[in-house]
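Protein modeling request. Please complete all fields; requests missing the sequence field cannot be processed.
Requester role: graduate student
Desired output: 3D structure, token encoding
Chains: 1
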Amino acid sequence: MDCLELRRQLGTDPRLADPAARAHLETCAGCRDAHARAQAFDARIAHALAIGVPEGFADRVLLAQLTAERQGPRGRGFRYGWIALAAAAALVVAIGLVRREGVGKSLPDLVVAHVTGEERQALDLRTPLPSADVARAFADRGVTLASVPPDVSYVQKCPVGGFKTVHMVMPRDNEPVSVLYVTRYRAAGVTNFERDGLHGREVPIADGTLVMVAANTAPFDGLEHAWRDALQGSAQTAAGSP
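Delivered output (242 residues):
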């Protein structure tokens, strides 16, 4: 497969399930970068469109429809106008969500905001969990682990932006390390980053990306090696739960 054919496939399915496309990515840095951008954009769009339905919305739609039917021809204008108004309102909400979430945010930005915000309390946990709990969280995301690295004190299936992740805390030298495995998104390569005084690293492994965040980089090499072993031969067979 050449670059042109791969870019065509990117336009229809950023996941690139075709083995020939995957093989091309291994040898072409430019296409790997384009693949990563396409996946990130697709994930952010999916997140922006995941709008929760307001409470009682379905009942109001049904009531409006029933009222219009009872009014006969006189109610048709009201019915179509109400539907148009609802569609316009949904569009406004979607635009607001896109602006609020920041479509331009990178995966490191989203991960750091997640682990230092809504999941901050997890950093205080130190008691190791049963390995079965960790394996089950990955299985729910469609990933089968070959092994489970020890000393996971927290595990949860977390949406981060538009990405689906398994979020863990793995203390090292009495300091918390946030470890997230992002499913169905493969970064272009190993990248170190810094955000808000924290150090991080994103590593493409199997069909996903491992992201580690901590106060220093000392634990990263060991954790990266452990998770490469754990994910070796893993298969993602389902999108998993949100």
